[in-house]
Amino acid sequence: MWKPFKTPEAIYMLRLDEQDENFNLILTNITDIWETHFSLEQLVEIFKKENPNIEATEDIVKTNLLSTIEELGNVNISLNYSDNELNLVLQPKCSDESLKLGVPNIVYTFSLLKQDSSKFKNELTIPLIQTVFFLEKQQQVLLNLLKKKDRELEEYRMEKGDISRNDLKTETFHLEGGNNSNNLFLKVFKEGDEFWKYFTDQHGKVEIDLLDVEPEPWNKNKRRKVIHNAKTAPKKGIQYKK
To answer: 60 and 137: one domain?
Structure first.
């Protein structure tokens, strides 16, 4: 998962992938992208070089790095550029208690190489397009579910009458026009058109678990609304004879 962060100069996103004790570290500033690969053994060597006074097993080094990336907001980050290389330094912030005890700060230093445009496309552009498509499909599912809920509430009011608590009453949902800015990728990628067909042929389909939220057949017919008062409201529970 991408982890965003900010320096005084720019905004960045960082991602660490792990598979079979091999790691892939990717960094981007939304314009360029850098990457480095290393094994668990190489990670331990990096750790020992930067932290000679700290003894740690492979599992501890690995777990600590994963925790550092996960909690990036609690990490001091510095970046240094040189030609096509970027040096990334991560230093988790110590707690006040650790500082009082004199616990040394842990430091990780990585050298990442600048990648070409194809890497940027595969790691950012394509996933962003797929994310937009996924979210719009998911939004449509939720809209259909809201419509069904409105129909269900209408059915309840027709059968049982209006509820007495005003704070629980809701208006029928209507989707407003929304943002019509030409700069946003809204309603651009449509399933079935030529662009999306070519895109999925090249980069794979976006798997979405769509729920069936169409109204049930019995819930499609309009019914006459019934308003109950205290005398005509249907009684519930056990009724005792007077």
So the answer is: no
